[in-house]
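Bug #77: duplicate submission created two jobs. Keeping one. Sequence:
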Amino acid sequence: MSGRLSVALGQYDTGWHAPEASLAAAETLITRAAAGGARLVVLPEMATTGFTMDKTQATPLAGPVVSRLGELAARSGVWLVAGVAVREEDGADATAPCTVNTAIAFEPTGRVAAVHRKQRLFAYGGEHQHYRAGTTPTRLTIDGVRIALFICYELRFPELFGAVARDVDAMILIANWPAARRAHWDALLRARAIENQSYFVGVNRTGTAGGLTYDGGSAAFSPWGEELAPDTAPGVPLVTLEANKVAEVRERYPFLRDRAV
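Kept job's structure:
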């Protein structure tokens, strides 16, 4: 339990409705990041399909796409977070599948460690008509660093982050955030780090898909809101998160103690 974690900002062009091509690109990225010393590799939202409203693109949690991602994590011996549109059975009616927008965390063995279901759906793009919202936050601990997972549009809702701030050292958000709203992305990533006195890591995609252009902008911020300068030597940007630095900032400036929630 070192309390120190090297994270790869796995920004890439995930393509559009092309899982095999995206998985091949992800494999190259994960292999390179692992060789560069990454302990955790983070891929974008809906990494295997692009941000799609076509529910036929969704895959079972126990299906081959998710299994392949687990295999990629195991092959490189790293933790992996990847966005996947998942089809699962409705708890009330086992014959009625539903779709959820998820961030799946895989252990270095390939086992699924956690599944975050997006809590705020992007109604502007019709997501609420095709996907079901999650109802709870998702947390896990990797090498002594306590992490909460989030997805794209959730970035606009500070109450989601405030609800878990005291219990985590880092917040990781995966996204398909269009270039047209890039200024909001840049501002909100930093704001979430500052207001929660937490590391904040945002990983976006690049490329063109579904009629939209994505220009990345993946970044990480310290608990004081300073942008971390990534190590780009491995070919995949790497940043280091340290739990003790979170504790130091919160002890020196105990702002979270005054929060009502």
